Amino acid sequence: MSDEEKKVESSSIEPRVSPDDIDIENDTLNHSANDALFSLKDDALTKKINLVNNAIDEIGFTPYHLKLFFLNGMGYWTDTQLTFLESSVRTFINYQFNYKFPVSNEMLAAGMLVGALFWGFSADLIGRKLAFNLSLILSGIFTILTGTMSSMASYCIFVFLSASAAGGNLVLDTCIFLEYLPHKNQWLLTFFAFFWGIGQVMAVGISFGFLPNNSCSGYDNCPSHENRGWRYVYYTNGAIVLFMSFLRLTVVNLKETPKFLVSNNRDIEAVESLQSIARKYNRPCSLTLEDLEALGPIKINDDYRNHIDVRGIFNLVKHHVTILFANTKMARSTALVLFSWMLLGISYPLYSSFLPQYLASRGADISAPDVHGVYRDALISNTVSMGGPIVAGALLYFFPIIGRRGVLCIGGVSSMAFLFGYTHVKTREQNVALSSISYLTIYIYYAVLYAYTPEVFPSAARATGNSLAIACTRLASVVVPLIAYYSNTASSVPIWICGAFVGVCGLIALLLPYEPSKHRVV
């Protein structure tokens, strides 16, 4: 170690959070500049996380954070890109393999569900870094291979595998970025949904380029050599995902997040992780190993990590879940967040995936007359949707008094209003306009919910909480194809259901007990 590094490590500071700042017994906080969002039963962990937060705020926003912003955003990009990819080619897959039931959509939803649980739970067990690096690589490889399949069974298997690989991105990306982010910059989490918009525009745009001139027109005669458009779409999308995984490995040398390290008694690595960022970008970092060690060891996970076997892993996962319901207030927060994700998991896919069937029943004046026109209109609507996260971020930045919960309510209720209005569309122009504004407003809600969710889960179980939230929406989306298949999607009923569910989500936001914009996350 160099003399300069020794000097940084040997510097000392007084702990900035005293025991008087935290009322562990009553789960309340005295008002101070260093208030945390909530307290944990482990006194040492609460204080250590506050010291880590102080160090992160002291370092400030650096080029390292900017790299993480774009690289983590690529995970959002991949998630929605694969979702819209599958929905874009599904009709032509069914033509070729003579299927009418949306079995591939079910496999996509199941893969996303498995991926969210697997990568989310493992991230709290072994760390965030491995999952961050592996998920996109595997997803890109499996996506390319999906385009080579010659039967519905093999196609569905690789749809499941690619979705499983990508399914943890929404769990991990906000989690990793949040655990490095200074408090004053936490509003940037809302912009991650912007990458979600990019992903769906890419998927629809690539489909627009390949499908109209390289696809069958029906079930009667659809040989593979006349229906290669969907394969080209998979090859192109898979190559893009694989390139993004390469960027993740080369642009930034991701270190394990300091909050995960501290939560697992790896104080030396946590201090070195923060100090290395400070040294590289010439920023101050007063945190030392002595500051953390003076607070004692973390006990919240130790009893479970002493038995690393199948039963021990199960108990540790169960323990992480119990942390999310550690007291009445936290339990109410977790339950409302999970319920919001479940309602959204039904309403949004039902609207976006099966809207064309509703429009087709309204007549030629409303829906596009050919495949080319369908994808043109979809491309316009999905491009406009990218404005939702920008509006959400602007509201949080310029009107902080509204807070996360206020913007969630605005996004949910306004989406309900526009979706209800959508049932009265009379022309194609009105269709494109209402579709675009509906996507924009629902993305206001999505953007803030994606940011709010990891903020209200403690670092000791943040990935687990994220995975449960995403799993709720994935589980709900498994039901959507069944609803669409066995009900009349040509009627306006599904749109009324979507609007009502999103409106309820907006109202639930007012009942959420935590407002992260006013406190630092633990």
Overview of this structure, please?
The chain has helices spanning 3-10, 43-59, 63-97, 103-126, 129-146, 152-166, 169-178, 192-210, 229-251, 258-263, 267-280, 289-293, 302-305, 310-323, 328-360, 371-385, 387-398, 403-422, 428-455, 462-486, 493-508, and strands spanning 22-23, 28-29. The longest helix has 35 residues, at 63-97. The chain is mostly helical and 522 residues long. It has a single domain (63-254, 323-518), classed as Growth Hormone, Chain: A (Up-down Bundle). Helix 3 (63-97) packs antiparallel against helix 6, helix 4 runs parallel beside helix 7 and helix 4 (103-126) packs antiparallel against helix 20. A hairpin with a 4-residue loop joins strand 1 and strand 2 (28-29). Helices cover 69% and strands 1% of the residues. The chain contains 21 helices and two strands. A two-stranded antiparallel sheet has the order 1-2. Keywords: Membrane, Transmembrane, Transmembrane helix, Transport. Its main location: membrane. It is found in: Membrane. It is a multi-pass membrane protein. Residues 1-20 are annotated as: Disordered.
